[in-house]
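Technical annex, item 7. During the second reporting period the consortium partners agreed on a shared format for inverse folding records so that results from different sites could be compared directly. Each record opens with the tokenized structure and is followed by the designed sequence. A conforming record, contributed by the partner at site C, is shown below for reference.
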């Protein structure tokens, strides 16, 4: 009772705002947002791409235009880099901003891509030294709950600036945090003058050319032809073992089961998935356990 008596007069006396905005009264009080910013925010539209493994694997070159066209901002909620590169290609081609966000282990990072203004995901990650980042996934090394919340909050703060009509407030930096060690970084990222996407306008993920090529391979099996990489099968076996997945390995291949499937992975990046003929299942499992 005393609490409500304390808060009610304070709100009505100090903040004479439209009742429609009552719910957002504290955000409107923030001087950089104000009622005008909140009004723009309410009228804006954004889409979160990917809700876990299933949602992320349901975005693909064949339907990305239909699903994402018409939104002012795209937010990364995916769990694999194949989908993120597809999202990047779409955003660059459509001239639409998107916010990259990823977390694995105790580490996470986020970067806002503004086509024509900032670097893009391909500038950032299509480099020889980005390999380890692309191979670690929440399914192989796990993820600590608080880093997900922290990165999501940073992502949404950037989204608020765009959707409230204040792109000049974007910091334009790659922000990364390790919530276990307490290390935080904010660095500038330059555009790659040779970037295939934002400079060369080569949208290989959107065209479907950068998908791992998948073919039927006998009965109830598919083969993933991913030959661009050299896999450390011993390291992969250790990651799987930490998850309680027992893998058999020799110098040439590694085999493990994730019921009802069985996957055989080769040192050159190829894999055979037994138990399905669905390319989406194969891509999803490959991205989760082997990496993008
Ligand atoms: Zn680029």
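Designed sequence (site C submission):
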């Amino acid at each position: 009772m005393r609490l409500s008596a304390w808060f009610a007069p304070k709100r009505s006396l100090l903040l004479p705002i439209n009742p429609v905005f009552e719910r957002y009264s504290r955000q409107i009080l923030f001087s950089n947002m104000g009622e005008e910013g909140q009004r723009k925010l309410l009228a804006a539209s954004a889409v979160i791409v990917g809700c876990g493994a299933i949602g992320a694997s349901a975005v693909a070159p064949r339907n990305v235009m239909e699903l994402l066209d018409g939104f002012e901002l795209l937010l990364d909620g995916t769990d694999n880099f194949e989908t993120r590169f597809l999202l990047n290609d779409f955003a660059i081609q459509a001239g639409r901003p998107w916010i990259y966000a990823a977390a694995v282990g105790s580490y996470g990072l986020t970067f806002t891509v503004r086509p024509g203004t900032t670097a893009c995901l391909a500038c950032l990650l299509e480099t020889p030294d980005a390999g380890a980042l692309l191979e670690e996934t929440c399914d192989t090394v796990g993820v600590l709950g608080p880093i997900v919340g922290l990165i999501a909050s940073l992502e949404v703060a950037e989204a608020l600036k765009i959707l409230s009509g204040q792109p000049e407030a974007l910091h334009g930096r790659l922000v990364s945090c390790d919530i276990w060690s307490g290390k935080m970084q904010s660095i500038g990222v330059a555009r790659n003058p040779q970037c295939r996407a934002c400079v060369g306008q080569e949208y290989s993920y959107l065209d479907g050319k950068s998908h791992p090529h998948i073919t039927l391979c006998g009965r109830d099996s598919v083969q993933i032809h991913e030959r661009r990489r050299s896999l450390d099968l011993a390291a992969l076996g250790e990651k799987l073992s930490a998850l309680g997945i027992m893998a058999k390995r020799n110098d040439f291949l590694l085999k493990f089961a994730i019921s009802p499937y069985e996957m055989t992975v080769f040192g050159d990046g190829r894999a055979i998935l037994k138990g399905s003929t669905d390319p989406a299942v194969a891509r999803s499992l490959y991205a989760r356990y082997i990496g993008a």
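The domain at 213-289 is CATH 3.30.310 (TATA-Binding Protein). The chain has twelve helices and twelve strands. All partners now use this format for quarterly exchanges.
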